[in-house]
Amino acid sequence: MDRYELKAIGTVHKEADMLVVEMTEKRLTAAMKNLSLFSHATFIFSDGRGRLKVRVLAMSEVDEKNGRLVLAEGGGLLEGNAVYDIKPYIPCEDRLLTEQQMIDTAQPDKAEKTGGDEVLQLASAGQIRKKQGRYFLYPEDFDSFLASISGSEYVKVLWWFSRFDKKEYRRSLQGEPPYENAPRSGVLATRSPVRPNPIALTVVQILAIDYEEQSIEVIGLDCFDRTPFIDIRSYIPSVDVVSDYKVPSWLTHWPEYKELETTSSEKKLVLDDSDEEQLDSFLKTGPSALAATILEETTAEQGAANEIIIHGARQNNLKNIDVVIPKEKIIAVAGVSGSGKSSFAFDTLYAESRLRLSETVDSIEKPSVDTITGLPPAVAIAQRSIGRNPRSTVGTFTGIQDRLRLLYTEIGHRHCPNCGKSVRPRSQDELVIILRQLGSEHDLQLLSYGKMDVLVQSGKGKEVRWEAVVGQALEVGKGAFYLSIDGGEPILLQNREMCYQCQTILFEMTPALFSFNNPESMCSACNGLGKTIAIDPALVVAHPERSVLDEASTYWGDVRAFSKKPTANWMRGELLALANAKGIDLELPWQELPETFRQMALYGSGEEEVSWSYVHPKNGRSGTITRVVEGAIPVLNRLLQKGGNTAEQITMEYMRAVTCPVCEGERLAREGRMVTLAGLRYPQIAAMTMEALLEWVQSLPSVLLPHELQVAQPLLKEIYQKVICLKEVGLSYLTLARTIPTLSGGELQRLKLVAQMGIGLSGLLYVMDEPTAGLHPRDYPSIIRALKQLKEEGNTILVVEHEETMLQAADWLIEIGPGAGQHGGEIIWQGNPQKLFRADTETAQFLTGRKQIQLNRPTLTKWVTVADARENNLKNITVQFPKGHMTCITGVSGSGKSSLVEKVLIPAVEAHLNQVGKQVLCSIEGIEDIQQVIHASQSPVSGNKRSVLATFIGVFDEIRLLFARETQAESEKLTASAFSFNSKEGQCDACKGEGVQTITVPFAADITAVCPTCHGKRYKKQVLDILYEEKNIFEVLALPVEEARHLFDKNKKITVALQTLCDVGLGYLKLGQGIRTLSGGEAQRLKLAKALCKKSSDRNLYVLDEPTSGLHFSDIQNLLELLATLAEAGHTVVIVEHNQQVIRNVDWIIDLGPEGGAGGGNLVVQGTPETVRKCRDSYTGRFI
Questions:
Q1: Among 179, 621, 647, 658, which residue's Cβ finds the most Cβ atoms within 10 Å?
Q2: Residues 467, 441: one domain?
Q3: Do 509 and 542 have their domain in common?
Q4: Is 570's pLDDT higher than 70?
Q5: CB-CB contact of 215 with 137 (8 Å)
Q6: Residues in domain TsaA-like (predicted)?
Q7: Are residues 934 and 950 in the same domain?
Q8: For residue 190, is pLDDT > 70?
Q9: Contact status, residue 6 vs residue 119, Cβ threshold 8 Å
């Protein structure tokens, strides 16, 4: 049980007949600033026996300077009592509107003896759970809790601000209250969680008590899930309701009572802009001159062109190369896989640039290079995943979302989350300007808020001292007044953040209001994800073609067996009882049963009872149960609500993600969802495609008021430029709300590029890994245009690339080779790419057609048919896959390729293999002889930061055994575990086997430095002294796979695994290379290699997502031959790919599109490459 410590901030003593509370420390006087502006406060104190008490008391005098306050009444405090907290009495927080009907059910708190504890230790009394926006108390001692509230409907919950129980918060004495126009105040004059003792006090209403779950549902709370509460006190009207109170001027407009209503989160959004529309119709003027120029683009200033000169680069397999790179050009680096391209681009140029930016840090490993001159700051855009966080979206990643939030904060029109009325505070000066402008052309009448008394009546053009009039009207109406124009309906004008229609208090708008990652502004029902988990009836009865007796549903299970040996199990018994009552033949398939019966079985019988009589044939137990039918779904929902591991295991099979019913998928709380700009709510903008967003941004300058346009100008310009960039790279169909995990590899690659565009920076070196990866050839020109734009802004672009179109578009080309690993690392050609075709390099031979990739085309006879495929943008398409052959799924980014494979094909096959009730989004035939699905995706390989290639492929154990069998190892009693850098027995003590130490660099990413003890070798010296074939364990792990294969040629197990890695184009990787450093393409080929190492006679379905990523033409040839071998062995191979060499050489093509997003999801054509080539509507056909 958790415990919480309260330290006394004050003590009680007597002065004459008065009780005085005096701060225990001089510094605490600062915490009392502005407390004197309140007449009453809630005191939390000890009763003299180590128990906590709470009392609302009047204060006759507050001496902020000397840290003392005089109580107007004793109120149960005794001399020497310790005071732990003082909270100002705020009526809308502390008193209820229904107090007139309440009767005191408990005695007020009071001290039992003098004295008190300077430090009080309190145990947790329970936990507050927040479930889909509803609050539940879970007491540690449920029975004692019920006894303590003694039938009260209203109680005060004392709970702990756990997140603020830190030294820095508890020592904080003053802050800026979130109240409108409030000055800096002491923490004891606010309800802030930042205070000496982070304890909160909230009046709540008890809605329901669940005796089975031992929980109490309440309303009125506002805290995080799993917040601890430490006590419950009765709400006592005679003490807690103060009628004659005083609060500061900045709170006088707040409501006089706390209203406890059930949550309004599920109300439909209704926005009332009638007042604003009426006023704007009088104020609206034509577009300002600024509107015509606001979105004009600016260009970055370019730097002077020169060169980057590299001398003696020896990193990894580079062989002392010298290179001259022209600045402010696009430079392509080509070569076979493992030739040294990444070593040159990333491990030398980018690493050296990072080193120079952090040159004050010692011990950072320097790239192995003699000199680099003219090297600018570098930015790397690699293929590695940018994260699969479901909260990360296109909008957050590109920065557009941040700018939109600022735009809505600055000029958005908010609405009351309770009643929907427009709430548009204006400064007093702004109100004066409006009245002066309107008064020159209209008759005006000002009426007081509330009583509607006429304050001023002004004829058209009449001189009026509007400053004085507005000031008086605001004072009388506590921040608001009505305006009637030409005798029309009164319009409410205000300068306070509050809804004057329903008295709802609002705090100042900030960008956080529009963030679904902020706990206070996200939808509390789905925690800002836009989706919740719900029980799906289609998963409860997963096999409707069967009868319930024959396990149509795993929920009821084997009902036939149960009916033969019945028990008192009501879950199955209610189904049989209902069938008996309704005369239903349960031998019929579920889908043929009457609809009324199926509804009752699933959702319950309401108040209708049924009877179940049973006699067990063996033990003779018998009985009759008469109850209502609860229904499968209510039972599962109850279990889901209860939570816990057991409930989760039971319900998981029947759940699926659905759009959140509270926020309707918009992810925000009501207040953030109800702010509009030009008539559109913030979530509506976030749901727009880039194309629609561009139109909206372009329309804003002509509809905004002049002062709004002035404020919005810089933000609109930035948003416009970012959206233009997204359109230029072919992503205009994406929405801001599209989550990053749902994007394809090509979409992700372009998104990374857009994040760097339009930011106005010049003089940078961009190092990119295959910017065309994941893209259809149709989209290559858009990427090339984007790269040229970056170049024109004064930047140098270095791309590691294999794609022919990209190589030809470069200004300069460097080819590294001639082979991989130790056979590469040399500059074999550099210059203008147009001249490469005359050379005799591997790249030149494929580009000129002197070498070609060509496989034989077999006859297709057997098929897997997927019909009515529907997910994301797939439009009920029907496609075929030839069994035992290679199929390539093609189409532009966003056309539906990943949806077809990952959301339709794989789940359908797995559901058949596992016989589980998964949601299948198609009908499928021809998969009877497929025994396994092997999906090699580009997602990161699973493993921790210490996992290496040798471990993943399964050869490291064997290698360690070889070392342990060496004579010297046996004599020193070194076991195989000593040769693992994860073992304390063998790892370096200083770096724990990591070989590096992490150094934190301010304002930059952390940097790793070589361990000064083992010099990066990860092992103890004793271990490194053991040699196998004249190499120690560190040297073996540093070997490329291709070399290691020859070293271990006598060990068949190791050789087979390493040969497989070479077959999939990974022979250049090192045995000790961390798997987290692999690109998406490398990770996928590694998964494929691991699957191929497992000998199996099964007929498998192999699914690969762009396996050629990072491969040279010659490597693609090898990979295709490997996949063809798999197909010849009877396996079905499905490849999602854009590479033209692959597409030309597969047996069957399924081309989706024709466009991405809403314009995709159709079957354009399917057939052999020859068939697709003839299809005029196919973008793929044009490129092959």
A1: 179
A2: yes
A3: no
A4: yes
A5: yes
A6: 122-244
A7: no
A8: yes
A9: yes
